[in-house]
Amino acid sequence: QVQLVESGGGLLQSGGSLRLSCTASGSTFTTYDMNWYRQAPGQQRELVAGVNRFGSPNYADSVKGRATISRDNAKNSVYLQMDKLTPEDTAVYYCNVQRTTYPPVAYWGQGTQVTVSS
User: Distance from CA of residue 82 to its chain's centroid?
Assistant: First the structure.
């Protein structure tokens, strides 16, 4: 059974930084893409950043230049570092992994709240 456990987040100040961690268990994740999504109140869940199984990252325009996603396959973990936070970054952040081999499947973490005060 695949489980994703997120950590980090909390109440942060505008201009500050966050570092989120997600550790997966229950499978081998070298063939999975690993992602961070977020959902603000009243908004749809959106992709913040992703890193594919080859280690190539991609970022939403809203965080490009101030976010870094990384993965450690030996630890089955994915990390999100984000700087220059603004109140618009306030959301629940979700870890997501997606298997790239057949059959495709995706798993989600329980989410971690990030609140940025102005």
Answer: 10
- Report the 10 Å Cβ neighbour count for 56: 9
Tell me the pLDDT tens digit for each residue of 41-90. 999 999 999 999 999 999 999 999 999 999 999 999 999 999 999 999 99
Per the listing, tokens 């990030």 go with: 114
For the record, the structure tokens of 113 come out as 């709240």
CB contact at 8 A, 114 and 89: yes
Q: Are 108 and 96 in contact (CB under 8 A)?
A: yes
Give the separation between CA 105 and CA 29, rounded to whole angstroms.
Answer: 12
Amino acid sitting at position 33: D
